[in-house]
Amino acid sequence: MDTKTIIVTLVCAALGSSALTAVVNAIVSAVQKKRGKATTQEAHLDEIDKKLGKMQEHQDEQYLAILRLTIMSEEMPMAERLIAGQKYVTLGGNGDVKKFLHQLEAQCGHSNGV
Fold this sequence. Notes:
Layout: H1 3-72, H2 78-90, H3 96-108
Helix pairs in contact: 1-2, 2-3
């Protein structure tokens, strides 16, 4: 090999390795950005899940409250009050409203197995 060939080979190797380094850096950077976006999206989805869970919890509480109001309301037809009572107890409603429901059932001669 002559000197010219050696110099050209060394220059090509140096340029080639820096070009390869640049390509590797670009790939690593792109992967890191993608991971960053995925992490950000995952955090955002976790936040949405928490909010949806809280909204579901509030909806369940509101539904029990509506059932309580239906059971306790003297303006509502007795059949509707008893149906609401069954749903209320099935969903875990308890306490004074459940005692009142049993009184209503006794008044009507109903025994719904509640």
